[in-house]
Amino acid sequence: MPSFKIPEKGADAKELLQRMESFKSKDINWPEGKFFGYVFYAGEDIYNVAKSAYTSFMSTNGLNPSAFPSLRKMESEVVGMTANLLHGDENVTGTMTSGGTESIMMSVLSAREWAVKNKNMYGVPEVLAPASAHPAFAKACHFFGLKYVEAQIGEDFRVDVAEMAKLINPNTILIVASAPQYPQGVIDPVEAVAALAKKNDILCHVDCCVGGYLLPFLEMGGVLLSPFDFRVEGVTSISADTHKYGYAAKGASVILYKNKELRKGQFYIKTDWTGGIYGSPSFAGTRPGGAIAAAWAVLNYIGSDRYTRMQTNAFHTTRKLIEGVKAIEGLNVLGNPDATLFAIASEKYDVHSIADEMSELGWYINRQQLPPSLHIFVTDIHVGKEQMFLDDLQVAVKKASKFSWENFKKNVQVGAVKGLKKMLPPSYFNQLLDRAGKSGGGADGGHRKAAMYGMMGALNGTEKLEELVEDFIDQLNSPEQSEDKGVE
Ligand SMILES: *Cc1c(COP(=O)(O)O)cnc(C)c1O
Predict the structure, then answer these.
(1) Cα separations (Å) of 331 from 192, 201, 358, 373, 396?
(2) Is residue 103 a part of any domain in this protein?
(3) Which among 209, 238, 239, 283 is the best mutation to test ligand 1's pocket, defined by most ligand atoms within 8 Å of the CB?
(4) Which CATH number is 196's domain given?
């Protein structure tokens, strides 16, 4: 029997809210700003506008626009404002979705439908993307039965276009560039990728999930960037997340297409259902009106002057952080980040141990792999916190570089895994992973993840790693266990 059930008698509303507040005690303390990614917070006034708009439309449903002309108006205005921002012409159109992943999935689905109508294909349609592209593209191919092909990235972490050209074949339907890509924050050579698409008569999607409401304002603020949007010939769709640098409420993104024909590919219609003729514009059935309303309100509330100020401030903070990181002996920054995302690496220290030490100082930092690095994602909340971060980083580097039994244990574990991985049955790996999480944690109960990451790195590319991660996600999503496992 599952361990939870709906209480027989309903609880008191006030008491419930208090209990829920207490649930938050172990969450990231996001108004404090000692984290990167996940939450985009730019001050109480913007937050309150989003909150009021969201709650006011919380019960509305964007599935059927004729029932809610209010949502239809706001959605088409958000799409229109975004198309304008990204230099679309009067033919550019789109829809709102629940987030970047759904926007990307829609672009892949519409490409498949476009190919069915317009291309002679001899096999499974292929989507070609940089190895640095967001996993949503691979996820889309997995969902829609397409083949996902990855092009390697160059020394500068931008996609290698010559390699892309080699991978194009008659089954390729869509190629992808990111502006910027997430891991190292660089903008792919969008012009060259789009030209390649045009030459081969296929579609080109630019993933502006992060950049959509960021790069245009950086340009307005005088930052020089290589072209990334509909100004580039050959670009046929763009995704832009209102819930990232738009600072809107979660559950809001925009997918834009060069024309109406392409957009039709993401619609689904069933005319013979006994419940009536059913049509839906995107993945979801019921579409939460609150997210649409909050996006509309926030874009109008902030306005382009304030966006320009906010985003350029974040850009200058990023420059200061990058300079500061490079000034710390043994640390470096990967590539030449174009905007407000970057990755800290080191040839001297184990960066994952540095992240562990940073978490002792209250910072929550995402670990990356291939190569190992720490992901920094600068938003409005970090402006003015540069010195605090750099001082803490300096302390963390010193602590991580010292000999300690903790570090020694981690290295032994990683080394052991490298040697043993071929010989051990999967069940043993599960135990090992579990123990690594705990023993690496020492006294602080699971905050130390370097050991686990080292191990994941050693196992990388094997099927076992996939199994381990699958088990891990399974456990995280089981209510009995979720309390005492760290989420990564
Ligand atoms: C965040 C992100 C996505 C996916 O967006 P979600 O809203 O998390 O689904 C896609 N591409 C890039 C570059 C991103 O940073």
Answers:
(1) 32, 44, 14, 10, 12
(2) yes
(3) 209
(4) 3.40.640.10
280 shares a domain with 415: no
Q: What is the distance between the alpha carbons of residues 211 and 217, in angstroms, rounded to a whole number?
A: 10
Number of independent structural domains in the chain: 2
Q: Ligand 1 centroid vs 209 CA: distance in angstroms?
A: 5
Residue 309, domain member (yes or no): no
Q: What are the strands, taking DSSP E only, across 363-451?
A: 366-368, 373-377
Closest C-alpha to ligand 1, atom 12? 209
Q: Which of 266, 298, 330 is a domain's end point?
A: 298
Q: Are residues 146 and 263 in the same domain?
A: yes
**Residue 45 per-residue DSSP state:** H
Say whether both 246 and 108 belong to one domain.
yes
**Residue 36 falls within a domain, yes or no?**
no
Point out the ligand 1 atom lying closest to the alpha carbon of residue 211.
Answer: 13
Domain end position, chosen among 298, 317, 334: 298
72 within some domain: yes
- Determine the distance separating the centroid of ligand 1 and the alpha carbon of 84, expressed in angstroms: 21
Q: Rounded distance, CA 97 to CA 287, Å?
A: 8
Task: State how far the Cα of 13 lies from the Cα of 1, in Å rounded to an integer.
Answer: 28
The response to whether residue 188 sits with its C-beta less than 6 Å from ligand 1 reads no
232 and 92 within one domain: yes
Strands 126-130 and 147-151: parallel
**pLDDT of the chain along its 488 residues, tens only?**
788 999 999 999 999 999 999 999 988 888 888 999 899 999 999 999 999 999 999 999 999 888 999 999 999 999 999 999 999 999 999 999 999 999 999 999 999 999 999 998 889 999 999 999 999 999 999 999 999 999 999 999 999 999 999 999 999 999 999 999 999 999 999 999 999 999 999 999 999 999 999 999 999 999 999 999 999 999 999 999 999 999 999 999 999 999 999 999 999 999 999 999 999 999 999 999 999 999 999 999 999 999 999 999 999 999 999 999 999 999 999 999 999 999 999 999 999 999 999 999 999 999 999 899 999 999 999 999 999 999 999 999 999 887 555 555 555 555 555 544 444 555 655 665 565 555 443 444 444 566 566 666 666 556 666 776 776 677 666 665 444 444 43
**Does 273 lie in the same domain as 414?**
no
Are 132 and 252 members of one domain? yes
Amino acid 327 reads: A
Cα-to-centroid distance, 134 and ligand 1 (Å) = 7
**CB 209 near ligand 1, within 6 Å:** yes
Domain enclosing residue 409, as ranges: 405-482
Torsion, Cα 28 31 33 37, to 10 degrees, reads 60
